[in-house]
Write a structure and sequence with these properties.
By secondary structure, the protein is mainly alpha-helical. The protein has one domain. Helix 1 runs antiparallel to helix 2. It has three helices and no strands.
């Protein structure tokens, strides 16, 4: 089973946030990299957390009057938002799959 990720090149966002694409590709590789599914999820959650922390730090610097570039801060916030939305969609799929398995009769 393989997982395909397709993102259009015409919009403002042309790639997944740092690490998200590699986490998704390792999900579809069937565990060939030696890490289990749980390890991949932990890694993806840590990457989302790092993006959120970076965005929070940059916003704090901007609010305190530091020399932060507004466009870079906005890009950082949007990356964190997209990564979080992706994580929530993966969570929803996992919960849905669990519920489907739970309904099976053996």
């Amino acid at each position: 089973m393989s997982v395909g990720v397709s993102i259009g090149t015409g919009g403002p966002l042309t790639s997944l946030p740092t690490g998200a694409a590699s986490a998704l590709s390792s999900l579809g590789s069937g565990g060939d990299s030696g890490g289990g599914f749980g390890d991949v999820l932990k890694n993806a959650i840590n990457q989302v957390s790092n993006l959120e922390g970076s965005a929070t730090q940059q916003v704090g610097t901007l609010l305190q009057g530091g020399n932060a570039d507004m466009s870079k801060v906005m890009i950082s916030v949007e990356k964190a938002d997209v990564a979080f939305q992706l994580m929530m969609q993966v969570r929803n799929k996992i919960v849905s799959a669990y519920q489907d398995i739970e309904k099976m009769q053996f």
